[in-house]
Write a structure and sequence with these properties.
Blueprint (H helix, E strand, L loop, with lengths): L1 E4 L2 E4 L16 E6 L5 H10 L1 H5 L3 E4 L10 H11 L2 E6 L1 H5 L1 H16 L4 E6 L29 H21 L22 H5 L20 E2 L1
Parallel strand pairs: 3-4, 3-5, 5-6
Antiparallel strand pairs: 1-2, 1-7
């Protein structure tokens, strides 16, 4: 298996995919911030987003993925810091949760304000949320009508999934500030320019003088 590293090709690597800082190269990572009391609704939302995962557009993360013996706060912090899309699954239980509201939501909105991630509130159950810090953000589903208030809840989840698809496709074209490109342009190979001194020396097989050091790899893509 071959991998390109900004113009350099590394072969083999024991047949394993290199570590790149996200779970899969080219995927938009989604973080689910939710109350455990809404776990059944989170699972239903994940099912509606499964088509995006099968298409290689997203990968999701939530606290149930923390392995035994792992330090849960550290795992959550790492996932929250690396996500490109953060879903706030809003309900009375979310608003009442100190950790969801004061820790995860606060950090999510900080990253949103810095342009490092896109925060999307998803209204699961009716609650007075418009005065909350995330109240200025466009919420899903349509008209911010809580999922459980829809006559057919699968219609609500379908609407949410369509909205998330639009956000993901936008991010793949224009990644958040400070993140690695996750769209088609991530596969573009860019050869670093030669210096004037290097150009005057005898070039090696790769077009650079023997002994020239390559710059540190910036991103990995599978070829």
């Amino acid at each position: 298996m071959d991998f390109e590293i900004v113009g350099l090709r590394i072969k083999g690597l024991n047949g394993k995919r290199p570590k790149t800082g996200r779970s899969e190269v080219g995927f938009v990572q989604i973080f689910y911030s939710y109350s455990r009391k809404d776990e059944s609704l989170r699972i239903r939302l994940e099912n509606h987003l499964a088509i995006l995962q099968r298409q290689g557009l997203i990968t999701g993360w939530h606290d149930r993925m923390i392995g035994a013996g792992r330090e849960w706060k550290g795992e959550i912090d790492v996932a929250l810091e690396s996500a490109q899309v953060i879903l706030l699954l809003i309900s009375p239980s979310f608003v009442a949760s100190d950790y969801c509201y004061d820790v995860e939501m606060k950090k999510a909105l900080e990253r949103h304000e810095m342009g490092q991630a896109k925060v999307i509130p998803v209204i699961l159950r009716p609650v007075d949320w418009h005065a909350a810090p995330f109240g200025k953000l466009q919420a899903l589903p349509r008209d911010a009508k809580a999922v459980t208030s829809w006559r057919v809840q699968d219609e609500a989840f379908k609407n949410v999934a369509e909205g998330i698809r639009g956000a993901v496709e936008e991010l793949r074209e224009r990644p958040p500030a400070g993140t690695t490109d996750v769209g088609p342009s991530a596969k573009k190979r860019v050869r670093p320019p030669k210096s004037a001194a290097a150009a005057s020396e005898k070039e090696g097989d790769d077009g650079y003088p023997p002994g020239t050091s390559w710059p540190a790899p910036q991103n990995l893509v599978q070829s």
